[in-house]
Structures are given as structure tokens and as C-alpha cells.
Amino acid sequence: MKITYVSSFNAKSILSYSGTGYYIPAKLKQAGDQIEYIGELRRINPISQKVKYNLYKHVSKKNYLIERNPDVLQLWARKIEKELNPATQLIMSYSSQPFSQLQIKTPKVFWSDAVFASMINYYPIYSNLCSESVTDGNKMEKQALINTDMAVFSSQWAAKEAIKHYNVPQEKIKVVNYGANIDVDFTYNQISSMVKQKPLHECNLLFMGVAWYRKGGDIAVEITRMLREKGINANLTIVGLDPGREVESLDYVRSYGFISKSDPAGQNLFRQIVAHSHFLLLPTRADCTPIVYSEFNAYGIPAITTNEGGIPSLITNGVNGYMFNKSDSPNLFAEKIAQVFSDKKRYTELCISSFNEFKTRLNWESSIRQLRSILLEII
Question: What angle do CA 171, 174, 176 make, to 5 degrees?
């Protein structure tokens, strides 16, 4: 297929959108498709919109979303129309916005993790919105869903939200999981060996993310403390952010901040942390499709998390981790971790089945295969 991948960011950079925006076109190309890029659409956002953003922020004390404004998205559409190769068989995007004002006959598909309405007051960036952004955001989302030939979502939650808020016909929606944004290729024997080499005198929990409160960092600290009260020598490793002095001063917390996986030193440190980790612990308050679960399943590490947003499309209780309600007490999380960790056979089986979920379902090869079958039916 001849596909043009459109994005507001630089999709040729692996750093874009945690790597997902990069891997989608890269893996399509690897599967044999011809990929052209029309990217960094946000570079043409008018200065006047930035002024408007600051006025809302400092005068009205409200959040204003530039990239939900109809005039901005009209500019995006004109750029796509101008640069689109006439030989393109299909236009694809990571989000709905590029299609809201795009009126051309070439088939269009976006693969996203949420719709606008479900994000309002769910993530900080979509909280305290001005009424203009709420109105425009919903209008542009609905128009994009009308204009697109197929809306592919990375979770059942996102798909249901599209139907609920925008009355999208069921036949216009598909669900395909994202893959893991890492390039590793372990075997079952290697994972089994890695699990056996993990220390058993301590339970090493790993919190990884850049949004401390939303990802439940404070809850992770409390879960670790309760495990220690239960007699489990639990430690919490924090990667991706600075949790603050109060947390860093705790003797059962190790904080590494941001680790760059683009340089050898960072890669080596990351491998050491992974090798010693028993569970990924993310008691998140709000999430769409966190790729990190798939990534750590690739190392045979199960996830302890909540059943928020699209997470149930990634985690199956007792298979590649355990989910709890976000209203559940930290003690419930701690009890489950203690039960599994104290039973070596049960823990080992959970690690192997976690790896199997990655190997059979949560990888890009499997996801791209499903996506391509959808795309081939459209062109």
C-alpha cells in the first residue's frame, strides 16, 4: 500500500509520543508498505493562537486548546491537501484532528487511544478548559469521525467512548492494541532464566512515568510501605521523574529521574533496573493505553495497576498482572503483591504468562498485521 502518514509532530523521531507515533509508520514500512510523511503540522499554528492561549491562561485562568480550534485545523487540512502525493492510496494519522477539516476522497484512517469527550477533566491538560475549547473540541472530533473511513482505537474503552459520545456506527470502529515501543526479542527460555536470577530476599517494585499524581506515585509509595509492614522487604524504584525530597529520603525508595535510553550508559542502567524488578507498579488514577505495560511484559515483568481507561485491554488479571479499582485501598494492592511474590511457583508462572501476552498479542508485528487487514479492506 502507498500510505501517507500525517501528524502534528515529527513522526520520524522515536521520541515522539513515547515512540508510538514513530513505530506505527515504521512498522507499516517494515511490513512492505510505502510510507510518505506530512508532519509537524503544529509548526504552522498562527502566532495569534499562542496569544489567545496566554490570554486565557493569565486572564481567564482557563486552559485553551490551540489544536482543537477549527481555523487551525483548517490550516492543517490545506497543508495536507497541498503536499499529498496523488498516488497515495490511504492517509493515516495518530489522531483525529488532521481529518476534522480534510475534505478529500482519499481513504482516511486514524489510530488513536481516546476521543476528546472522554479526556475532558480526565487528564490535567484537558482540565479547567474554557467553554470555547470544549465546544470546538467536540465539534472537531465529531467532524473527524464523520470524515474518516475508519476509526481504529487502541482499547475497547476508547471505542465505546466514541460510540457513547459521538454516535459513531459500530461498523466504522475497530479495536487494535498498540505494540511495545522497544526492540527486544527474548525467548521463553531466556525469560525463564531471567526470572530465576531475580533476587528473592527483596521485592523490587518499579514505578515508571512522568506524571507523578496521575500515575499514582503517592499510592505506590504507600503500597511499598504496607508491604514492609507485612514483613516483605519491599523497595520502590522510581524512573522518569523527580518525586521530591520527602519521597527520595525514604530508605525503601530509589529514585533515578529520567534515564535516556538513547545512550549506552542509560541503556545499561535501564537493563540493570529491569533485571532486578519483580513488578511494574502503576496504581494510576487516569490512563488511556499505557504502552509501558506491554514493554515490561516483553521482559516478563507483570504489572500491578488499576482498571482505569483502556488498561483492561492490556492487562488480564492473573495473566500479565493484576488490576484494582482506583478507589481500592493501598492495602489491597499490597496483599496481592505479597501473595504472589511469596509463592515462587505462582510468581514464575505469572512472569512467563506476562511474556506470552507480549509475544502473542502486545507486540507491533501482531498489531500491524491486524491493522493492515483493516486498511486493505478500505483502499
Answer: 170
Question: Is residue 156 domain-shared with residue 69, that is, in the same domain?
Answer: yes
How far apart CA 64 and CA 57 sit, in angstroms, is 7
Q: What tens digit of pLDDT does each residue of 141-192 get?
A: 999 999 999 999 999 999 999 999 999 999 999 999 999 998 888 999 999 9
Q: pTM surpassing 0.85?
A: yes
- Closest to 113 (Cα-Cα) out of 154, 148, 145, 141: 154
> 111 and 260 share a domain?
no
Amino acid letter, 269: L
Show the cell assigned to 102.
480534510
| 3-state secondary structure at position 210 | coil
What rounded mean pLDDT belongs to the chain?
96
CA atoms within 13 A on the CB side of 356: 12
Task: For residue 200, give every residue at least 6 positions away whose Cβ sits within 8 Å of its Cβ, in sequence order, or none.
Answer: 344
Q: What is the CB neighbour count within 10 angstroms for residue 246?
A: 9
Pairwise CA distance, residues 119 & 136, whole Å: 14
**CA nearest to 6, candidates 28, 21, 19:** 21
Residues 217 and 240 in one domain: yes
306 and 282 fall within a common domain? yes
Give CA–CA dist 171/177, Å, rounded: 18
Task: For 244-296, write each residue's pLDDT tens digit.
Answer: 999 999 999 999 998 887 678 888 898 889 889 999 999 999 999 999 999 99
